[in-house]
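In the previous chapter we treated chains in isolation. Here, by contrast, the input contains two separate entities that must be folded as one system, with a combined length of 677 residues.
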Amino acid sequence: MSEAILDSPVLTAKTNTKKVLEVESLQVQYQTTRGAVKAVDNVSFYLKEREILGLVGESGCGKTTTAMAILQMVQPPGRIVGGQIRINGKNLVGISESELRKYRWTELALIPQGAMNSLNPVIKIKEQMTDAILAHEPKSGKDLKPRILKLFNDVGLPERVYNMYPHELSGGMKQRVCIAMSIALNPSVIIADEPTSALDVVVQRVVAQTIMEVKDRLGVSMILIGHDMGLQAQMVDRIVVMYAGRIAEIGPVYNMFKKPQHPYTQLLIESIPSIAQRKPLKVTEGLTHDLRHTPVGCVFQFRCPHVTDACIDEAQLMYEVAPEHFVACGRAAQRATRLESLGGRYA
Amino acid sequence: MPEPLLDIRNVSKTFGGGLFLTSKPIVALEDYSLSIYDEPAKITTIAGESGSGKTTLVNLVLGYLPPTEGQVLYKGVDIHQMNRQQRLAYRREVQAVFQDPYEVYNPFYRVQHVFDMVVRNFRLGYSKQERRDRIEEALNVVGLRGEEILEKYPHQLSGGQRQRVMVARAYMLKPRLIVADEPVSAVDASLRAMILNIMMKLREEHHISFLYITHDLSTAYQISDEMYVLFQGVTAEKGDVSQIIENPKHPYVQELIKSIPVPDPEIKWDTNIHLPSEEEMRIKYVRGCRFYPRCSFGMDMCKEAQPPMFRIGQAHQSACYLYRKAASQN
C-alpha cells in the first residue's frame, strides 16, 4: 500500500511543465472534545507552472482549510497531522516560523476573501503596501513609491489611490489593492480565496480579467477557491472537486464540465443554474456525514444514487480515467475504461 | 383588467439630506412602479446590483418604510392607510423569506417556537391536533418532517433546512404573496436548487405568487415569469424573463448579461465588449439617464431627462431612447 501511495498517478503523471506546488497526503484535523474532525483527509494534488487550478466544493468540504494549510496558516484547534506541502521542491510542513517568513509573500501569496475586511481602515494604502514590502525586503530602502505605482499600473488602479484610505475606494478597487499586494514580491504561487464573491457581476468580470492578465504577464501559478462554477469555467485550467475533506475528482476544466465522472461532480454540474438554457435543476438530497466519523468506504456513499456494497465496505481508490483526470469512484472508472488496467491508489 | 394584487404607484424614496438639507439626499428609488397580478400565480424577479434599490423596495412592500412619494397598494388599499382588519389580512397574506437563514432565528428557542409564534399571533386552528397537523403539512410541503426538526435548536439544522423552515412558516399562513429577498444567495448549489424547486412548487400547486429579489440573473431565468431590472433606483428593463435574458435591449442589461460567467468552458466571455472602469461605475448621474456616463450609445437627449419605458415587444419594455422609434411604430 505504501508503494501504491508513492507511485500514485497524481504525483507521477507525465507532464511537460514544472510543478511549482505539490500537496501530498495532506491531513488537517480540528481537535474537539468529542473527537477529531477530519477537515482535510489525505488530499494530494499539484499545481503546474503558469496554471490556474480551481478548488471547488460545498461549504465545509475543506477547500479553505486546504488553502490555509498550504499557507501554513491553520489556526488551533486545527493542526496539520500528516503529509507534505512542497513549494519548488521544498517541504513547508513542520519548518520554523522564521524560516516560513522567507516563503510568505515571496513564494506564496494570498488574495483573501472579502477585500473590504482585509485592509486596515485607518492606514493609508501607501503605508500598508510599504509595510508589506519592507517586512520582507528590509533593505529595499525608502524609494518604494515608483515600485508601488508600477504595481498599481499592473492591476489597473489610478495613481491617486496611493494617498487614499480604504474607505475611499469601491469594492472592486479594494480587491485590486489586495491583488497588487499579492504580486508585490513576485511570488510563484498565489492563492485566491473567492476573490470576487462580494462584488457585483460587472465588477466581478473586470476584476477576474485583471487577475488573469496579471497571471499571464507575471507567469505566476494560482489556486482559485470558489463555489461559482461559472467563474471556474471561465478562469481555470484544471479543477479539483472536494467532498467531505477528500478529493472526489480532479481533471481538466473541459472534462469536468462536459464529462464529469464522479456522481458528486455530476450532481454539482447539473445543479448550476445558467443563462445559456432553461432546465430543471437537479437536487442533491441528504447531508454530509459527521466528519468525526469517517466511513470505511467512499465518503459520498450516504448521498450517492448509485451506491453499492463495495462502496460501503472497501476503501475508496483514486483512478486515472483520462490524462490528468482522476476520479475517486470505482463505478465511474469502470465505466470510463477497463478497471484492471488502472492503477488505483487510496483516496 | 382585474385589480392587481400588489400595485406600487410612482414611488420615490430618498434618504438623508439632513434637517436643513445640509447634505445631498440619496435617491434610493425614483418614480418606481410595479404591478403584480396573481391570476395565475407568478414569480416576479426584481434584479439589480448592490445599491440599485432592491432592499429599499422590499422594505417598502413589507411596510417597514413609508415612501417619500407615491403609494404602495395591496388589493387596492394603501398599506399605510389600512384599518385594523385590513392590516391583519395584509400581514398574513404577504409573507417574507430573508437572505440569511442564520440570523432570523432566536438561538435560545427550539424550532417549534417559530411555529408557535405564528399560531398564536394569527390564531390558527381550533384544537391542538389541528394546529399540529397544519405545522406538519407545512413542513411536508418543503420536504421536512416535524419529528426531525421541531425539537432541535436552530444551530443543529443545516443552512438549507433553516431556509426551508422559513418557507414552511410563510406557507402555513396560506399567503397570496411571498417576498423572497435573496433567499438562496447564502446556501450551497445543491440546496439552492432545492429551495428554488420549492418556490416553483408553491407557485404551481398552491397558487402563491413571489416577489423574488436577487442579483443572480441565472436563477431568475430558471424560475421566474416576469422580471424588472433595476439600475440606481429606476427600472432599466422589464418584461417576460426569457425575452430579457435572451434578447436584452437596454445597454446596461446587455452589459450585465454579458458579464455573467457561463458555466461552460466552451462559451468564453466575449472579450469585445466595452467594460467600464471602476471610476465610471461610481459616477451617480442625477439628471437624465442614470446609465449615461457608462453608455457607449449616449446621445444628447439622454442627458436631459430619464427615458420613459418604451415598448419593444408584447411583454418587453426598456427605458432607453434607442427604442423610441420602435415603440412609436408599435
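Chain A has a mean pLDDT of 84. Chain A touches chain B through 47 residues (CB under 8 Å). Compare these points with the single-chain example from earlier in the chapter.
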